[in-house]
Amino acid sequence: MITYNSNNKRTSSAFELVQWSIDLSRETSIDQQCIEDKVFAIQTTRIAPSPLVSDINSPYQGFNLGLHVGDCTEQVNENRDYLKILLPEHVEIQWLEQVHGNKVIEVSHVSESPIVADAAVTKNKNTCLAIMTADCLPILLVSKSGDEVAAIHGGWRPLSDNIIHNTIAKMQSPAENIYAWLGPCISKDFFEVGSEVKTKFMQHSDVFKAAFIEKSQGKYLADLYKIAEIQLNALGVTQINALSECTYSNTDKYYSYRKDNITGRMVTLICLL
């Protein structure tokens, strides 16, 4: 069931509205209301909206939006059709074929077929950028003037290959005029990686040591939020907000590939109105 909050914006158990945290005391020229009026962004959950019927015995049970994970195509397309109802009128979604790389595309028009990339940028109105995740970190960027947006698939591989840098390089807005939002992902308490992952980040800078906690010999707990924050700050993006919920420990609400292996995908969406 879709309801409306005090600002007359649609809400549902199937998704959460992205909240931009803007420090007006630091940038008095920024009009947060202007950004909220110009940009629409949501994070879906695995909770199926009440009009949809989901098999409780299926590993994809809920609001799965990934066509590539083995779920029934008809069911996923039905979920995607419902997703369109949640979006503003006339908005079209650009889907990506994510390959854990660092390619960034500029979207000038929406393609019916998914485009191979792990991040996208647009200045076009009514073009919705979509990132699918099930433990990886979804990252959204918006310019302070609300005329440019980006969406990034922040898995450890794309992050270690500088996908945030590549995305901001594609944007016309200077980094100091960009605001970031980090979505739910596997938390540092559960994201165990090998020493090769830490080494790859440390090759960039020793500052990434703060994002890894040694668990046992050759094994570390990695903090995707911290990694993204370090990279964003280094590029000049300092205003960052996060929905810091752990997908691995909250599988009633989110899909977790690391925990369940066979599972669905959430989607993080952003568009200019």
Question: Could you give a short description of this structure?
Answer:
The chain has 273 residues and is α+β, with helices and mostly antiparallel strands.
Characterization of the model:
With 273 residues, the protein is of the alpha+beta class. It is built from seven helices and 18 strands. The strands form five sheets. A six-stranded mixed β-sheet has the order 7-9-12-11-13-17. Strand 1 and strand 2 form a beta hairpin. The longest helix has 14 residues, at 73-86. It is globular, with a radius of gyration of 18 Å.
DSSP strand count: 18
CATH class: Alpha Beta
How many separate domains make up the residues? 1
Shape-level CATH architecture: 4-Layer Sandwich
Total number of helical segments? 7
Distance between the termini: 24 Å
SSE order, as H and E?
EEEHEHEEEEEEEEHHEEHEEHEHE
The CATH topology label is CNF1/YfiH-like putative cysteine hydrolases
The largest sheet is: 6 strands, mixed
Please name the fourth-level CATH homologous superfamily.
CNF1/YfiH-like putative cysteine hydrolases
Q: Write out the strand line-up for the largest beta sheet, numbering strands in chain order.
A: 7-9-12-11-13-17
Q: Compute the average pLDDT.
A: 91
Give start-end ranges of low-pLDDT stretches. Answer: 1-10
DSSP strand content: 25-35%
Q: State the helical fraction.
A: 10-25%
- Helix vs. strand class: alpha+beta
Q: Radius of gyration over alpha carbons?
A: 18 Å
The shape is: globular
